Amino acid sequence: MRKSILVGVCLAALLPATAQAQNVEGRVGKLESEMRAVQRKVFPGGAGQMLQPEVRAPQGEQGPGPGSPANSAIIDVTQRVTSLEQQMTSLTEQIEQNQNRVRQLQDAFDSYRRTNDARLKALETGPAPIAAGGPIEPDDASNGGPSRPTPRPDTAAKPSTTTPAPTKVSVEKPSTGDAAEDDYMYGYRLWAAKQYPQAEAQLKKVVADYPKSKRASYAQNLLGRSYLDEGKPSLASMAFYDNYKKMPDGERAPDSLLYLGQALTKLNKPADACKVYDELNDVYGAKMAAAMKGQVAAGRSAAKCK
User: Fold this and answer.
1) DSSP string spanning 103-140?
2) Mean pLDDT in each 10-residue stretch from start to end of the chain (306 residues)?
3) What is the DSSP letter of 166?
4) How many beta carbons lie within 10 A of that of residue 76, not counting itself?
5) 46 exposed, middle or buried (CB, 10 Å; 0-12, 13-18, 19+)?
6) Is the distance from CB of 220 to CB of 193 less than 8 angstroms?
7) DSSP per-residue letters across 188-223
8) Residue 37, class by beta-carbon neighbours within 10 Å (0-12 exposed, 13-18 middle, 19+ buried)?
9) Do residues 137 and 229 lie in contact, with contact meaning Cβ atoms separated by under 8 Å?
């Protein structure tokens, strides 16, 4: 009879401790599940990286001694679980802050990309045509190309009704057996003879027929110069930009940026001209000849670049 009463008393004492242990186990299981989710978020892909929770028993506490209550171990585990829950809350807050920073950085980058795309699109479409200015005739031989005959200064002459009308000079097409070279030189001779519409049609044909030839870069650049000499800086700017954009490794790509800066200056866009000169220095500065560097300096001065 005594043994039955004693067993009953022991069971009654153990029931609250057992319920408390089950409650703690439930909290620990939940925390472990949440911790694994956080680990997957912090370390996507795994790679074996895991954060170990800094859970320590409170200092100064000793293990249960003789005669200590049976539920002291459960109280200790409860305190450690509470500490783990606090660390989980702190880690979750840090993740949310990092996500907010990432969103802010993404928004700033998207804004920059939209602005930059709009500027490039405006440059690609080219400026609107305006009244043409005087032609620019830089020496093509200074950069290794064929030299253009220097025109003689006009001599003063008395007007006369008997002066015959100027006749168009006949331009002969070369025939060396190299089709790309012959077509380009024919376009160059037309340009040198100031027959600009004919020269422009011929130079466009060279670019279309021989896109892989080195003369394609020459022809596209000379097309822009023909427009510039004809007093059409708007068309010239588009031709120069196309040469740089489509054939950046071509031999006349640096020249096209130089003349693009001059065309933009004629179009009263000095700020854009300065950006083009900066691009020329950044991309081709190490390869530029001394003569071109002097032309760049003159162009920056004309555009009043800082």
Assistant:
1) HHHHHHHHHHHHHHHHHHHHHHH-PPP----------G
2) 44 51 69 70 56 51 50 70 77 76 75 68 50 38 42 46 61 94 97 96 97 96 97 97 96 96 96 96 93 95 93
3) P
4) 15
5) exposed
6) no
7) HHHHHTT-HHHHHHHHHHHHHH-TTSTHHHHHHHHH
8) exposed
9) yes
- Determine the Cα–Cα distance for residues 299 and 293; give it in Å rounded to an integer: 10
Radius of gyration for the alpha carbons in the chain, expressed in angstroms and rounded:
41
The residue count for the chain: 306
Angstrom distance (rounded) from CA 21 to CA 37: 25
Which tokens is 54 given? 């800094």
One-letter amino acid of 179: A
Question: Is the separation of the CB atoms in 236 and 227 below 8 Å?
Answer: yes
Residue pair 211/218 in contact (Cβ under 8 Å)? The answer is no
Q: Which pair of tokens denotes residue 235?
A: 């068309």
